[in-house]
Amino acid sequence: MTGRNQTVVSDFILLGLPIRPEQQNLFYVLFLAMYLTTVLGNLLIIVLIRLDSHLHTPMYMLLSNLSFSDLCFSSVTMPKLLQNMQSQVPSIPYAGCLTQMYFFLFFADLESFLLVAMAYDRFVAICFPLHYTTIMSPKLCLSLVVFSWVLTTFHAMLHTLLMARLCFCENNVIPHFFCDMSALLKLSCSDTQINELVILIIGGLILVIPFLLIIMSYARIISSILRVPSARGIRKAFSTCGSHLTVVLLFYGTIFVLYLVPSSNNSTVKETVMAMMYTVVTPMLNPFIYSLRNKDMKGALLRVFSKRKIPFYL
Ligand SMILES: *[C@@H]1O[C@H](CO)[C@@H](O)[C@H](O)[C@H]1NC(C)=O
């Protein structure tokens, strides 16, 4: 590629967020606080589930995986955003940009597959309560996780390799706060038809199939609750599924609004704000949505911390 008669881009400039200079510091503090909350909240969930043996069930194993994925997902974009907000030239090397894109896709997909696995877990728990332990065995749970990792590895690799084929000429300014795939495609001076086709077909499948599977699981759950309505059963089902559904709606809602609602050319601000929603806000809220409403998690918190305190009293 360097043999061609073109200047080849070695660095990209990330324009960042559409924030006025005088508000830069305010937002810096805000994003730093959000990022720290995300890291600490998700770490707390992972540690609690690891330490408390009551939580060694498929549902909590998957939740722990989701927390890990959230933690990594926001770590792909946030540290670089925070660093760029403080630097004069907010640049990122070409290789760094592709790496960021790879891990961004990887953890976004992983999140999506884990949400499917969690919906399936709830479906089995509510529709086949007597067979739950035999169907959702630790082996199946592990297979679902491994399958998600393998599939996301290939999907992220495919898009990254296709992107690596493209040439980038003079224009190296990305109007975004991370190396977003569609922003990069707009900058390229090669033919991007194949990339767009692959994004449309495979990306669509990777987004739509998990979403449909989740909707199907919850539809079955709701219909099975309504068939034998009892106040206690309904409350129990909604307390476990309500938090899952909130997360699903947050995650897919923003992505669908972002990609499916038609936008004018001048919509960089809207795109950046929506991207902010699912890269920063969703991973930050997930731990709170799960643990604040959940008696098991609160119990675990008490058990783990009181266990740690006992030696001091002895
Ligand atoms: C993810 O789930 C698997 C399968 O249940 C489990 O063995 C593993 O420890 C989990 N990983 C994390 C980070 O929680």
Looking at this protein, list some descriptive labels:
Rhopdopsin 7-helix transmembrane proteins, 76% helix, 314 residues, binds 2-acetamido-2-deoxy-beta-D-glucopyranose
What's the quick description here?
The chain has 314 residues and is mostly helical. 76% of the residues lie in helices and 3% in strands.
Describe the 3D structure.
The protein is globular. The protein has a three-stranded mixed sheet. The chain is an all-alpha fold and 314 residues long. It has a single domain, classed as Up-down Bundle (Rhopdopsin 7-helix transmembrane proteins). The longest helix is centred in the C-terminal third of the chain and has 35 residues. The N terminus is likely disordered. The chain is 76% helix and 3% strand. The site of 2-acetamido-2-deoxy-beta-D-glucopyranose has 8 residues, from helix 2 and helix 5.
Topology of helices and strands:
Blueprint (H helix, E strand, L loop, with lengths): L10 E4 L9 H28 L6 H29 L4 E3 H34 L4 H4 L2 H27 L8 E2 L6 H7 L5 H35 L3 H30 L7 H25 L2 H19 L1
Parallel strand pairs: 1-3
Antiparallel strand pairs: 1-2
Helix pairs in contact: 1-2, 1-9, 1-10, 2-3, 2-9, 3-5, 3-7, 3-8, 5-7, 7-8, 8-9
The structure holds 2-acetamido-2-deoxy-beta-D-glucopyranose (NAG).
The site of 2-acetamido-2-deoxy-beta-D-glucopyranose has 8 residues, from helix 2 and helix 5.
